[in-house]
Amino acid sequence: MKRTPQDCPSRLPENTAVKQQQLPACRLQLSATGILSGFFATGVFCLGMGVILILSAKSSMEIEINYTKICASCAKLRENARNFDKECTCSIPFHLTQTMRGNVYMYYKLYGFYQNLHGYLLSRSNSQLLGTDVKDVETCAPFSKSHDGTPIAPCGAIANSLFNDTIILSYKLNSSVHIQVPMLRSGITWWTDKYIKFRNPSSSNLSSAFAGTTKPPSWPKPVYELDENDPGNNGFLNDDFIVWMRTAAFPTFKKLYRRLSRTQHFIEGLPAGNYSFNVSYNFPVTRFQGEKSVVLSTLTWSGGHSLFLGLAYTVTGAMTWLAAFSMMAVHLKLKGKRFSPDDKVKL
Amino acid sequence: MKYIKPFISEIPWKYSWYYSAMSLFESQSENRQSGEPERCLQANNREFNTLFGYPNNTIKTSKYNVLNFLPLNLFEQFQRLANAYFLILLFLQLIPQISSLAWYTTVIPLMVVLSITAVKDAIDDLKRHQNDNQVNNRSVLVLTNGRMKEDKWMNIQVGDIVKVENNQSVTADMLLLSSSEPYSLTYIETAELDGETNLKVKQAISVTSDMENNLKLLSAFDGEVRCESPNNKLDKFAGILTYKGKNYILDHDKLLLRGCVIRNTDWCYGLVIYTGPDTKLMQNCGKSTFKRTHIDHLMNVLVLWIFLFLGSMCFILAVGHGIWENKKGYYFQNFLPWKEYVSSSVVSAILMFWSYFIILNTVVPISLYVSVEIIRLGNSYYINWDRKMFYAPKNTPAQARTTTLNEELGQVKYVFSDKTGTLTQNIMIFKKCSINGTLYGDVYDKNGQRVEVSEKTEKVDFSYNKLADPKFSFYDKTLVEAVKRGDGRVHLFFLSLSLCHTVMSEEKVEGELVYQAQSPDEGALVTAARNFGFAFRSRTSETITVVEMGETKVYQLLAILDFDNVRKRMSVIVRTPEDRVMLFCKGADTIVCQLLHPSCRSLGDVTMEHLDDFAIEGLRTLMVAYRELDNAFFQAWSKKHSEVCLSLEDRENKISNVSEEIEKDLMLLGATAIEDKLQDGVLETIITLNKAKIKMWTLTGDKQETAVNIAYACNIFEDEMDEIFIVEGKDDETIWQELRSARAKMKPESLLESDPVNSYLTMKPKMPFKIPEEVPNGNYGLVINGYSLAYALEGNLELELLRTACMCKAVICCRMTPLQKAQVVELVKRYKKVVTLAIGDGANDVSMIKAAHIGIGISGQEGMQAMLNSDYAFCQFHYLRRLLLVHGRWSYNRMCKFLSYFFYKNFVFTLVHFWYAFFSGFSAQTVYDTWFITFYNLVYTSLPVLGLSLFDQDVNETWSLRFPELYEPGQHNLYFNKKEFIALETTYWTMISHFFIWGSLGFYFCVLFFLYSDGLCLMFPNVFQFLGVARNILKLPQLWLSLVLSVVLCMLPVIGYQFLKPLFWPVSVDKVIDRIHHCMRHPLPPPIRTKVKHASSRRSAYAFSHKQGFGALITSGKTMKGKPKKSSLLKK
Question: Where are the transmembrane segments (chain B) (predicted)?
Answer without folding.
Answer: 101-119, 301-324, 344-370, 898-919, 931-951, 988-1012, 1039-1060
